[in-house]
Amino acid sequence: MVVDGISYYNGAEKFAEKIKGRGSFVLLMGNTDTAFIPGITAAGISPELTPYTPPLDAELVETGRILTLGDIPLTPEAIPTPGLITRAVVTLSDFRRYYVDTGMSISPIVPHYRVGSVPGKDIRTGHALSNVKEIIETAKKVGAQIASESEYLVIGESIAAGTTTALGVLLAMGHTMDGFTSSSLQVNPQSLKSSVVLEGLKKAGITQPVDPIRAIESVGDPMMAGAIGLILGAKNVPIILAGGTQMAAVAVLLSRIVDLKGFNIALATTGWVAKDSSANLFGILKQGNVDIPVMTADLSFARSKFEGLLAYEKGHVKEGVGAGGISVAAMLKGVTKEQIEDTVEFIYSKMVGQ
Amino acid sequence: MVVDGISYYNGAEKFAEKIKGRGSFVLLMGNTDTAFIPGITAAGISPELTPYTPPLDAELVETGRILTLGDIPLTPEAIPTPGLITRAVVTLSDFRRYYVDTGMSISPIVPHYRVGSVPGKDIRTGHALSNVKEIIETAKKVGAQIASESEYLVIGESIAAGTTTALGVLLAMGHTMDGFTSSSLQVNPQSLKSSVVLEGLKKAGITQPVDPIRAIESVGDPMMAGAIGLILGAKNVPIILAGGTQMAAVAVLLSRIVDLKGFNIALATTGWVAKDSSANLFGILKQGNVDIPVMTADLSFARSKFEGLLAYEKGHVKEGVGAGGISVAAMLKGVTKEQIEDTVEFIYSKMVGQ
């Protein structure tokens, strides 16, 4: 099934035929204290508000409003969260929505599952998480429950500094992928990320490749553990990993635990990530020996009258909150690229009051 | 509106006319370490499993199954949770369901809001909760959100040892209500409860009546704080407090914070609580100067072939998980008393495999 607005890689046309019915969007939410390192992430309205990013994303996607902090005035120059794209798609289609707390500082005013109870520590400690196995076990049950109510899953994430932890686990498993993960910042702070990860690996005493659980425990984040458990529990339905280099890292982690041939799994992201010259989504999958279909939603905000949305065309943000994957799934259901772009423009115009 | 199977008190016929439309059931879940005091509660399959009572109730109501612990074999003598009645009503009607964690040890495998993060301490410490105001503030937002999607609310609870903490806050506010709260045990352990509460009051240094916030902080539980916030936030819609003496205590607490005349609020419970000679629901409301309508669902399991259900007729359990209130609301919508009783019998027969 080939649809305008989607690019297909690695046999994704065949996978796309499995995407039928209503489908479910799952947002994995988490925090890592790594996000407090200055300059590492653009997520969040301000550094102090970074921990609010996941709950506000969930509230925006589910209700169209920000409930936890009250209404935040936005200027037309403010670059919006990719959750705005996800919200637009949700209003255009009929996805069931599920929200999963994998380890958050602040709970969203949205009903959610809870598979972890603490944010990840700064990975420079080398001891990011002590509850990886517990998160996976609980997330398995949640995945099975959601799958029992779903034709297929689209799994997105909201965790600030997640591309840094993604780099962390890839290096911990022995891959040499410096410069391969994406960033929400226009200028990808690769050297900062690398130094953060290397400090963490050193503190963790990792000098040889380690297994995926140890990698997450040392320099990962709770979202990864939640994703792995969720996928293992939802094995019986097709799964779209909705994200860029973070979800590629999840795929690599997962492939070290189970044989992906037993799963119906693909990765879908935005064209902005796929085209990102500072990162290499396909390189991660190839070096990680992960052979799964990939699709991109080739959205463009070039027609926007707002600086905040035009910024996406200049390399800001790129992906997050499952924006690319849910857009792909919606387009496979018949929603057009232009409908998504126009709805984003409309919702954003309301947010900035213009 | 007078319906067979419901008893009306204090002008409840008029309140019942306001109950129109689909309506929403809200389950407030919480834990208090007070439940670990031997002999104080019958909730839970065994003392070690007492903390599992609220998540398992939520899972039973929402999915008809127990997910967190896997399938638990029940003998036909096992006295089932009142959540079984709530589940039966949910299958017979069209209530929206919402679950709210006010402070739990274990999260349910059911999507839920989260307004508190820690269980209450044993009230014998005199310092049961330190986050009462935070719970209320967050619960207000959740209440407003739920009310915006609801014609009316039915608010139930699942917290083991909740009748002891109810007694605690009533005494702390200066009421002399020993022997007025109900119990899940056939023989109400009034003297144990009183001694637990008195120890807590002494440790808290309470010798004069205190305000409701201080009462909850000293000898209350997180469910109470969640209920108060939820009601304050949902002020614009009719509210049924679905419970017995615990919800009566919530009504007394609330009446010390706001004028209840500004609310459309009633209490609804089971006939088993109303007829309980060891407690006095109406006495609590009267002594507490709370003038609200009361309804009871006059269910009977006398026709059951199972010992576990017949036990309800002998004074076991009586109420919980909003069973009485949701039954009243369903009967106001046209579900009959017999349909509820027969559905409980059917679900229970499946649970015990007969």
UniProtKB/TrEMBL annotation, chains A, B:
A Gene Ontology molecular-function term?
Answer: nicotinate-nucleotide-dimethylbenzimidazole phosphoribosyltransferase activity
Q: Which SUPFAM superfamilies match?
A: Nicotinate mononucleotide:5,6-dimethylbenzimidazole phosphoribosyltransferase (CobT)
Pfam families, per the entry = DBI_PRT (PF02277)
Coiled coil spans: none
Q: Which InterPro entries match?
A: Nict_dMeBzImd_PRibTrfase, Nict_dMeBzImd_PRibTrfase_arc, Nict_dMeBzImd_PRibTrfase_sf
The Swiss-Prot or TrEMBL record describes its family as follows: Belongs to the UPF0284 family.
Put simply, this protein is called UPF0284 protein LRC238
- Species assigned in the record: Methanocella arvoryzae (strain DSM 22066 / NBRC 105507 / MRE50)
Its lineage reads:
Archaea, Methanobacteriati, Methanobacteriota, Stenosarchaea group, Methanomicrobia
